[in-house]
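Comment thread on ticket #2218

A.B. wrote:
> Attaching the input chain for the structure job we discussed in standup.
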Amino acid sequence: MRNHSLSLRHFLTHTLVCSAALAALLPGAAAALINVGALDTVNAGDVEVVGGLAYIADHTDGLLVVDVSEPANPVEIGRLDARSAVISVAVQGDLAYLTEGRFPTYDFAVLRVIDVSNPAAPVELGYLPTPSPAVDVQVVGTLAYLAAAESGLRVIDVSDPSAPIEIGALLTPSAAMSVTLVGNLAYVADFLEGVRVIDVSDPTAPTEIGAYALLGTHHVEVVEDLAYVASEGGLYVLDVSDPATPLEVGSSDPRLQATHVQVANDLAYVVAYYTGLHVIDVSDPSAPRLLGHLQTPGGSTDIQVVGNLAYVADVQLTSWPTRRGTRWHDETAARATETARPRSWATAGYPQRNRPARG
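C.D. wrote:
> Ran it. Output below, let me know if you need it in another format.
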């Protein structure tokens, strides 16, 4: 679910952060963000949480299954080795879908289907080579949708987990970074060309029906008629009531270099590569307002909110990542954070961090 600068999901050195979300807090209330736990991993780049278990795409260390029933004490209970480097993960029922790939050479790329009915012993059922490494995967019914970087949107029939097969594809203008499904529409974050709205009612022939141009687009979350876009120019809110003509409704401070967003109860939980976790009041979508911020030690790339917990993937800031030349490192940390009273932007000031020099 996954990657979130210019890299395909910033797989450097990393952190899984579990943080308590503001599920019961009214928008606009004053509150603070508090760490509650941590788990060291090798390279946590994407996380999916289902039923007390966190499934972590841990780069060269493969798929990790972590018991997060006690947020202050996450415990690894299972693992599946990587073929190269696990980039993203999606879980549906007893199956986990992994994308793997090797950057910057692109000489290996694959979708793997994994049986996780016994989370202590994940087992591969099948796999499918892909034209380039996919940085995000979403599964709806018997179809897996891949945001496959320069290879665009790929649609995979996974009705037979032992033999997944591609049935449709559509190139996007630059690099597909994430995909979100809403009914028969796929919202794809294209890195250089913004949000692409794609009709997948016929999965064998995906067709673009609308677009909104933005630079540095990483992720799109859609709630009813609004799309929340995490981009390197901040958080944007788009009216997608007419999917053919998305319209900008509002945006955050452009210094918020957002990599991923999830929205719940009029709150947008946003992670930004250089400045960590942000809680933004979007009850008035025309005027998003920062409620609170938690600086993480590294570069935050992914977030999932589940009940009163949020899980954040955080990578070490040791180099300037580029879209096709991310440097790999092998140290990581994973923390859990409990939210309680975020401060206002006005009183806290906009959080900033110096970027590492290009190298």
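A.B. wrote:
> Thanks. Noting for the ticket: The longest strand covers residues 13-20.
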